[in-house]
Amino acid sequence: MLRYRLLALALISSFLLLAFAPLSLRAGETGPRQQLEVSVNQLLDVLRDKELKGDGQQKLRRERIAEVVFLQFNMRRMAKLSLGRDWRGLSEAERSRFTELYQNLLKKSYVATIDQFADEQVSYLKEIIKGEKAEVRTMIISGSREIPLNYKLQVKDGKWLIYDVIIENVSLVRNYRSQFGPIMKKKGFDGLISKMAEKITRAGEKEDG
Amino acid sequence: MFRKIFIASILLFCFFSIRVVFTPLVCQADSTVAEVAAEQDEYAEYDEEVGDLYDPWEPMNRSIFTFNDRLHLWIIEPTSSGYQKVTPSILRSGLRNFFNNLLEPTRILNCLLQGRFQDAEETFLRFALNTTAGVGGIMDPGTYEELKSHKGQFFQTFAKYGVSSGPFLVLPFFGPSDIRGTVGLVGDTVVSPTFIALHNEPAVGFAVQGLNTINQTSFKLGEYEKLLGGALDPYVAVRDAYVQNQQELLGK
Question: Does ipTM top 0.85?
Fold first, then answer.
């Protein structure tokens, strides 16, 4: 009798162990919002760094912002989605070249936009997780202005990475896709690449001068 | 008795170990299927392209866009920047609140027309409070009372009754719009107090409208340039931003 009781106990406990093991594993992972919060806090640290304040430090400051922010970006995926189906026809070298230019373009626009949020507060409104994809909605509160800033994330190698940013209802990826499409159609990939390079140089000159 | 528990637990054990062992496999199978599907339509997430937007007047729109762009960068932005330097921020916020308050009746009217009675009521309470306790709308006690101002413009009302947007249209001074938006803008303007001032005393009306624009811009100096700083085709970028905003405002 005792033997049965012990066996039953052992079986039940091992069953419990098995049943709850996946749960505890899941709890160990970081959610999209948590992960985003860490990176946003790093960004705010850069923006509030006294040594990096002022116009004279702009270049260095934006470099630092880009470092912190782009770490959370799945840049290749963003570039791919921004280009759309034309991506399929590109060689690996072309894809890397395009992704690199895309990242530099974001430096001139997205990073510059983020750069003005120095004394702002960020409030986290909502986190929607659907399988491997998630959306985190935040609000930047700047004085009496509220700027909705949403992020779309997807799991890559166990980490949530951003693949789109929606600033004031405007999706970055969609906005770029609307621009890239017609240029690809008219001037082809080489035309697009040279246009991107030209834009980056011009924006760089503006920043310096 | 214990034997029964024993057998039951064995059964339970077998059932759950099978489940636990096979779940990852099943999940994996699911995710590969999902991945393939995702690979197939991963671009579809962004398929509502602006190419679908009807823009038959693109050449004209582009030139008006260029006009607005220069107007903004050469006149409005520098004026606003100078204005910001000499005007205390309390005064600027007061003015902004004042002009914003003047638009509340339009919002209330449109909320009513769209059958959004709760929104209309809240906006009305806010308007009443800000106009009285807020000294004609210069102060904003409504926000402290957590009374929200709900968006309500004629283009939304038209959309609600099934009017479609029509071709894209860039208006001089007012910026990106479409046919429905333009007609809506006329409606919004006609019922706004600034228009009544404009109608009775055009010079005063234009001056007031100019001040409003300069004042509003003083809160977002440099933003316009930064937003378009990475745009390969600023016209298309603005047109797409307009469409995305409309979709959001109209609840898609």
Answer: no
